[in-house]
Every structure is written in C-alpha cells, then in structure tokens.
C-alpha cells in the first residue's frame, strides 16, 4: 500500500483555493509551476525488508554463539579427560618405577648368588682335579706294592705290610666316595645354575615390559594440546608386549623320563623342553622305578581349582604343593609320541590305588580333546566314554554339559561327557570324618551313578609308553 506524500497534498489544496473563490473560471492546475520535492521517509516495504534482515542476522548470531559455546564445552570435556588420563598414567609410571627398582635389586641379588655358585663350581673342579691326581698316585703305589707282594712268598709278608695295604685300600675307597659326592654336588650346582638363569631371564623380561610401558608414558606426555582429539584413541590402545625368554642351557631333557634315564633319582622340580617348545618347570616323580611328569596334584585342598579357562590353559598353583600344569604344556608333552596317563589316588587310610590309560591329547584348535584307552589298574574305570571329549571350564562350556544342563553344577575344569562324571579337579571337600560323612571328604572317584570313593590325595602324571611299568 502506497501513500501520497504530504507536501504534494498540501500543494494540491492551495491550487484549489482560487477555484473556490472564483467560480467563473475553471480551476487549472499548473504542474510546471510546482516546486520539486523529495520524500524524507523510506517506503514501508524497505523498512520491513531491513527489519527482517536484521532479525535474521540476530538469529544467526545467536545460533553461532550457541554453537561456539557447545564447542568450548566439548574442548573443556576433552581437557578434563586428558587431565584424568595423565594423572592415571603418572600414577602408573610411579608404580612401574617402584617395581623396576625392586626387580633390579632382586636381579642384583640373583647375579651375586650366581657368581658365588660359579666360584664354588670352580673350587669344586680344582678339588676334583687334585683328588684325581692323588687317586692316580695311590693307584700307582698299590700297583707297586702288589708287584712287591707277588715277588715275595706268602710267609714273608709281614703284618705291617698287610696293614699298610689295607689302609691304602681304605684311602682309595674314601677318595672314590669323595669324587662321587663331588660329582653329585656339581650336578646339583649345575641344576641350581639353570634355575638361577631362568629366574634372571624372567626378571629381565619383566624389566623390559616395564621399560616399554615407561617409554609409552613418556611419548604420551609429549602430545600437544592441538592433538587432543587424536590422542584419546591412542590412550585406549596402549598394550604391553611380552618378550621371548631365552635360556643359556641347550641340553634340557624332553621330560622326566629322560631325566631318569640320565641317572636322576630325586623327586623335585626340573626344567624340561618337550617337542621343540620353550623350556618350563615341571615336578618329576621318580619314585616308581621310572620318571613321570606330574600334570596335576592335590593333597589338602589348599588350592582353589575352580578357575577360568585361561588359568587351566596356562597352569596354576605351586609345583611343590597343589597345582595344575596347564593344557598347553600337557599338549607339548603328549605330542612327543605315545604316552601313558597314570592316575594315582590315596584314601584316608593311606592305601594307594592306580589306573593307567593310553593317552592322546589334541591341540587348542580342538579344545584339547582327549582320547583314552584303558590299560590296567586297581580302580573301577569311569572314563571309558571319554573318547573325543573336549575340555570345559565354568566360563567356556565346550562340551555343552555345564550347569545349564546339570542339576548339581560342576566345579573346576575337566573333560565332561555328562553330568556327575568323575572330576579330579572338583571342589575339595573338607567335611570331618564322623560316620557317613567320611565318604564325602576330599575328591570323589565315581564308578557309577551311585557308587563313589573318597580320596585324600590325587596325582596325574604322563610318561612314555615304552618306559618301565612299575606299579
């Protein structure tokens, strides 16, 4: 809508005044005589357009301010996350430094002991050389005496010469006994040296892992503030890498049976290297006329065997007490050839029983499936249906026979074929022996659905099939 400017209207009114006064002449409007005028006000459309533009500009400015505030808040949140991460990394670095100092001290102590053992071995070697020389001299003297005696008649031999010969023989026997003792001591010292070397290498591995974590922390603290959006994913992807342990000894036995063949007769912990794997410690039972590598042992329930899959795969416990060697190590031992699985049980009256199977174990890709063939024993055979059965734990039910299908949940890891199977890794019961409760103590050996036997001690070991079978 347009409006006529006010000055123009005013001029039209003035022009019409003479017409009203003189009606004889018609009114004439002389447009050329009108002065030129300009509007002092902008049209309303222009004002509306300008006001709309200003409103849109104000809204855009408000949106821009809100967006900027949101970006500033996001930056502050990332800064807070970085501060918390930096504090955690600083605390972790402190712990790593403390652990590194402790490991360095332990490594120094072990190195000192290693040097002392080496010095002792050198002294033993020197002593053995001197003893061997003395033995050679004594043997020469005995030969000379025997030649002299052979040249004389029996009647001419004096009591003094006989006593001298006897004393020389006793000295020789003592020297031989000393040599044997020194040889045994050297073998023991060599075994201790191997164990010390293993411990030192493990400590070096831990120190290397700590140094790697420290280097990662130093790199993280150098990240600039402009790289904060890309630094957050790096914080969550830091992992520690493990190094391969290297052993100095190259003549590790493949198992305890080979140790027995080398002349070792003492039960204890030894290092073995089966089937080209890395060396590891095992407990060897040499008490039955051959060497057997123990893979499981229970005696008092001090160790909790209700462990997850990772523990059963890598092993847990104390080799001098209750332990499970680990499925990976068992597979390395069993993959060397035909093996015998020997199960020894002891009841609460110290009566021992056993059962033996020909034993095959598949690898991790088959979930360590077991294959058993009964050989002999003094116990009922409850594992006749365990051919091709895979290993399962509470967090990895490979055989689908776990608590979801059993009225009484199983505990521990085992080769489960059905509910209620014999499980030598089940919970160790500590019920006192009073009347009928005695049969529920320790570990149960189930020979049927209702028949079961209670045992205080269990031991599972592996040996080669062709070794001596001593029951």
Automatic annotation (TrEMBL):
Pfam families: Fibrinogen_C (PF00147)
Presence of the UniProt keyword Magnesium in the record: no
Keyword Amino-acid biosynthesis assigned: no
Gene3D superfamilies in UniProt: Gamma Fibrinogen, chain A, domain 1 (3.90.215.10)
Domain Fibrinogen C-terminal: 247-466
Keywords: Coiled coil, Signal
Segments forming a coiled coil: 96-185
GO cellular component labels: extracellular space
Source domain of life: Eukaryota
GO biological process, alphabetically ordered: cholesterol homeostasis; phospholipid catabolic process; phospholipid homeostasis; triglyceride homeostasis
Signal peptide: 1-23
SUPFAM superfamilies noted in UniProt: Fibrinogen C-terminal domain-like
PANTHER family linked to this entry: ANGIOPOIETIN-RELATED PROTEIN 3 (PTHR19143:SF222), FIBRINOGEN/TENASCIN/ANGIOPOEITIN (PTHR19143)
Stated name of the protein: Angiopoietin-related protein 3-like
Source organism of this protein record: Poecilia reticulata
